[in-house]
Amino acid sequence: MAVAAALLAVTVSAANADCSISRKPFGSIAGSKPVYLYTLTNSHGVKAEITNWGGTLVSLFTPDRNGKPGDIALGFNDLSDFQTKSPYFGSTVGRFANRIAKGHFTLDGKKYTLFLNNGPNTLHGGKVGFDKKVWSSEPVEHRKSAGLVLRYVSKDGEEGYPGTLTVRVVYTLADDDTLRIDYTASTTKDTIVNLTNHTYFNLAGEGNGTVLDHVLTVNADRYTPVDKTLIPTGELASVAGTPFDFRTPHVVGKRIDSRDNQLVIAGGYDHNFVLNKRGHELSKAAVLYCPRSGRVLSISTTEPGIQVYSGNFLDGSLTGKSGKKYLRRGALALETQDFPDAPNHPNFPSSELKPGQTLRETTVLKFSVRKD
Description:
mainly beta, Beta-galactosidase, Chain A, domain 5, 40% strand, six-stranded antiparallel beta sheet
């Protein structure tokens, strides 16, 4: 249901609802749509705070093994810090998430040139990607869930990409302790699309040290090795016998500083894993567990890949919501996605979208705890 723009704060509530959504102002940007912070809450103490600036997941509160809620997502308390300091904390990333080599791709025989914002490459959509746009927003609520519908229209030629792309992202928090993200998109011309959410997770609580003690499982037999600029080489390499084998649970920090060349290049994990799945089914991608808090995050997706990034570029210079410094490897990003640089690798799953087609992708975050 729509919320009157004139209200400074509003709570959408249905009789006897288990989930709710509220809204308050979250700073302002001259000449743009209003910027709000929406709070989705369920009856078990799970709470997601989302702003329509960049479709950003600002905070994510989940209970630990003792039932105490804590914020497990890195971020800031105000809009200005997100605008000037954020390395994509919680952002909705597009038009093309991850890297495109040398800012070039060819589609239908035509070469397109993009802005270089990551050394010799284009990263996460370019200079002003979807993470820096003000999206239109509409809260919705049902008895067992509360949601936020975000919409953005990317004009033909924006950041160098062809076609006017109409994007819809829906965050839904349910009373079964899941946060579901549904993406849809359509285009007026042949184009490329790769959408993801870029939340940095620390299941001990944002700012509470590193994630090197977290235990990770990834449902992938293969991954995509990268060159020195973190562009995939095109190989789909086996994880067997390497530090990238998370098919069974492994502590994140146990092998991260090994002499494996791929880890040396990236300064840790910053690689796409090829998920074991059939087609477009919604299936388990990864599980992250924190022994300190007991929190467990399980991720399912329709996407073919998941980028595992161990916060290698965090350096303690950013102060988060709790007033604590964000240390190197102080979080793990688990970005469900198409493969990086897919338009330049015919052997990768296609990221092309044509007029008349509708992109539909879903990622589900499931929160739970272990008592041991």
